[in-house]
Amino acid sequence: MGQAVWTGSISFGLVNIPVKLYPATEPKDVRFHLYDRRTGKRVHYERVTRDIESAAFEPEPPDDLTPPEDRYEPQTARDLEPSAFAATPAARPVEREDMVRGFALPSGDLVTVTDDELVSIAPERSRTIEIEEFVDLADIDPVFYEKSYHIGPVRGMGAEKPYALLLRAMQGAGMVGIGRFVLRTKPHVVAIRPLKDVLALETLFFADEVRSPAELTSGVSNLAVSDREVKTARQLITAMATEWIPEKHADVYREELLELLRSKPAAAPAQTTETPSETPVGDLMAALRASVEAAKRKGARKKTAGSKRAG
Prior knowledge:
This protein is of the alpha+beta class and 311 residues long. 25% of the residues lie in helices and 23% in strands. It has five helices and eleven strands; from the N terminus they run ββββββαββαβββααα. The strands form three sheets. It has a seven-stranded mixed β-barrel. Strand 9 (175-183) and strand 10 (186-194) form a beta hairpin. The longest helix has 30 residues, at 281-310. The protein is elongated, with a radius of gyration of 36 Å. 9% of the residues are buried.
C-alpha cells in the first residue's frame, strides 16, 4: 500500500470513523526523458518569453530601482526588423516572482489574478467526509467516476469496528454514500462504495463537467430495428458473456515496449574528465626541491653565458 494522501474521518449520522485515504490505482506508463544527441545532456524546459511574441496585456512599468540594463521593454513582431525573423527569436528567462496567472474570459478579455486573491477564496481543508445521502450504485453512470481510492481505518483509534459496521451495512443495502470533501486544495463530490473487504472512494465529476452525448446520437432512437434483430443480437451477447477477470486484459504494448528497452544495449556512459590526483605532501616537497635546483642551474647557466658575452 502506498502513502496515504489524506487523513480524516467519515461521518454518517452520529458515527465517526477515523480513516486514511490511499490511491487505488498506479499508472504504469513508460515515460522517457529527452536528451541532446550532440552533447548527451538532458533537455530541460525553462520559463521564457520571446521577443517575437506580442504582449497579451499592458505590462507593468519597470521599478525605478531596477537598473537600466536590466529593464526589459517588450517588443512585438511589428517592432522587429525583418532580419530578426531569419534567426531564432531571443528568449528571456522569467523569474517566478515575475509570473502572474491569467484567464481568458468568454468575451475574449484577459484578466489576471494574484496568489493572495486565490488564497482568500480557497476552500478550507477538510477533516471529515460527511455522508449526505445514500443512493443506488446503478444510478451513477460510470462516466462520472474520476479517480479511485481505498479507505482504510486508522489503527489504534478504535476505528476498526465502526468501519466494519459501515462496510457490511452498505454491502447488505447495495447502496453507496454520497458526500463532499476537499483533497489538497480542490473540493470534490465523492461516492463511498463497498468492495469485498474494503471501502472505496470515487471522486466524481460535477454534473456540468460531463458532456451531453445527445448530439452524437440524434436520430438513432427513430431508426427501425426489428424484434428478430434485437433477439439475435442478445443471443450473441449471451454467447460472449463471461466473468470479468482484469488480469486477462494486460497492456500488451507496454510489455512489448519494456521488452524492447531491456533488449537494447545501454548507452555509452559519458567520459568524465579526470581530475589530477592529489600529490602526497612528501612528493610535493620533493618536486618543489627539484624545481628549485633546476631553477638554480638554469640561473647559473644564464649567468655564465652572460659573463662570456661580456668578455
